[in-house]
Design the sequence.
């Protein structure tokens, strides 16, 4: 198995110890966060191929942290896990990237290996849609202005929808219509 990096979210205790012992059998890099809040604060710039979230830790989380867990499921392979001394580790795939496997091995091989590792968003995003005009050359008299929308704003950027072809490094002028 190729090297992948996952983040285990589990409060300190017996469950976390059982998960870490089980993860030794796999050739993966594993970081540990003790809460979902810890994920956002301390692990938001590290690229991960997937997340393992301890169900009891999730249940004890605040509503805001549970919302963050839902966002993880929308953007990364996520496996919710629980540990029972009689049955061992139970796995529940969650979200669109997590596949249908019910074991850690299936999760790593089918979901995490096929997912391009990426980092979490570093800043909070506003879920607004704004009308924009896109322009390649603001100084040209007859330059083409493309009507478009911008969404998912943060201090680090936003998503711009365009039907035009753009290359990395192209100059882009943006006029946000809602701003005077």
Sequence:
């Amino acid at each position: 198995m190729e090297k992948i990096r996952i983040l285990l979210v589990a409060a300190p205790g017996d469950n976390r110890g059982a998960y870490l012992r089980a993860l030794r059998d796999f050739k993966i890099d594993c970081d540990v966060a003790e809460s979902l809040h810890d994920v956002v604060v301390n692990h938001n710039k590290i690229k991960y191929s997937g997340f393992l979230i301890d169900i009891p830790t999730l249940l004890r989380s605040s509503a805001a942290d549970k919302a963050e867990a839902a966002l993880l499921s929308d953007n990364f392979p996520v496996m919710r896990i629980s540990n029972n001394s009689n049955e061992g580790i139970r796995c529940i795939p969650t979200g669109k990237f997590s596949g249908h496997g019910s074991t850690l091995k299936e999760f790593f091989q089918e979901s995490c290996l096929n997912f391009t590792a990426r980092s979490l968003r570093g800043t909070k995003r506003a879920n607004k849609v704004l009308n924009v005009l896109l322009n390649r050359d603001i100084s040209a008299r007859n330059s083409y202005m493309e009507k478009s929308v911008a969404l998912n704003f943060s201090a680090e950027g936003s998503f711009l929808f365009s039907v035009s072809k753009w290359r990395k490094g192209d100059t882009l002028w943006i006029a946000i219509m809602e701003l005077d």
